[in-house]
Design a protein that fits this description.
alpha+beta; Nucleoside Triphosphate Pyrophosphohydrolase; nine-stranded mixed β-sheet; 4 helices; 9 strands; 18% helix; 34% strand
Length: 172
């Protein structure tokens, strides 16, 4: 269906951009990406790997492609842990994040143009006194314990992030 048929082209109707976000673990560590200084979004902030889902992809294929592009790792088994709607407005599209987790057999990663990759102790990242809190992308201190920690119930987490002032609301 094209944009005109959906009523979203040249129309104030709200839209979202589909994205993937992936967190890779090895033993007791998680791989995070420090955004490159020239990056448009999240420069100098820690995040998982991921990015836009292309027009010919479903979320899982997009996640595998993004992991390969950003880390050099071929990941066959990804577990969908969360779907997060990051609200925009009628004038600015929001984001719809498909958040995946995978355990990988190696720490050997290939850096890319997106930023610097590093392994961080999972216990630190999940801690209430997380020493990385100030450099993590905004909703990650809330989301990571729910998808990587003992707080993950095995059920998909559904969340809505309205922005910096209102925080994250979740189910699951």
């Amino acid at each position: 269906m094209n944009l005109n048929d959906q009523g979203t082209h040249n129309n104030p109707r709200y839209t979202v951009i589909p994205l993937t976000l992936c967190f890779l673990t090895h033993a007791d560590d998680v791989l995070l990406l420090m955004g490159a200084p020239n990056k448009r979004l999240w420069a100098g902030r820690l995040n998982g790997g991921g990015g836009h889902i292309e027009a010919d992809e479903e979320p899982l294929s997009g996640a595998r492609r993004e992991v390969l592009e950003e880390t050099g790792l071929q990941v066959d088994t990804l577990s969908l842990r969360a779907v997060v709607h990051v609200g925009g407005s009628q004038a600015v599209p929001g984001d719809l994040l498909f958040v995946y987790v995978a355990a990988v057999p190696t720490r050997d990663v290939r850096p890319g143009a997106e930023g610097t990759l590093a392994w961080y102790p999972l216990a630190d990242v999940l801690s209430e006194n997380n020493p990385l809190r100030d450099v993590l992308v905004g909703n990650l201190p809330y989301l990571l314990p729910r998808i990587l920690g003992p707080g993950w119930s095995g059920e998909l987490v559904y969340a809505h992030d309205s922005g910096p002032s209102s925080g994250v609301q979740a189910k699951g």
